[in-house]
Target: Tetratricopeptide repeat protein
Amino acid sequence: MERTKTEVEDGSISLGFLLYRQGEFEKAKQFFECLLAENALYDFHKASLYEFAPLLKQYDVTMNRIRCYRGLGSVSSMLSQYDETLMNFQRELAILTKLNQHEAEVETASAYVAIGQIHFFKKELDLALSYEEKALAILLPLNHPVLAYVYTAKGDFDSGIQFYQKALELYGQHLPANHENIGVTYANMGIVYKENKKFKEALQCYEKTRETYLECLPSNHPRILILEQDISRARALMNIFVC
Model:
């Protein structure tokens, strides 16, 4: 699962995330659990160089425990062990909400997003929406696509489209016009329009997706091949319903 902050840190924790990224999920899980159990989360030599070593020790241990729970949650999510994932992400969140540091706001919002995604995977859409809205209040730009997914799954197509449009506005401010994420967002909008039987609008979105994909992807890319199929279906459905 993607998170908003780089997960690989200096020191022992980085090995756990390296195992995770290599697909060694069970080994990564064991590694994070050992770190938590042994409390091997602090470099005492580094702390001794500072006047406020006890304070630094407490903060570093806290942040590293947060990263261990994040790692355990990410691993169990990849194994589709969603109850265990929620337990670890909730533990991460419980620690984060007790911190006053400004930096923790980003991590807290990221935890809300992750918990919302797991509830979405479990088809607990109301819970998913509540967590994504909490994250929205902290990190507005990061949450529009996830909220769009949830609203669409709940059958609220208008809200889904609205959040995709907001995502496009933000992408337009920060990404090049031919960025793949823009094409993906248009493709997702096309799916929403198709589900809502607005085939003309769906086709327009798919064609915008094609324009973007052809500029940033090779012509034989699987996404382009799937897109061409979606365009053909949208045209066929539009002809049927118009006639």
About this structure: The radius of gyration is 21 Å. The mean pLDDT is 81.
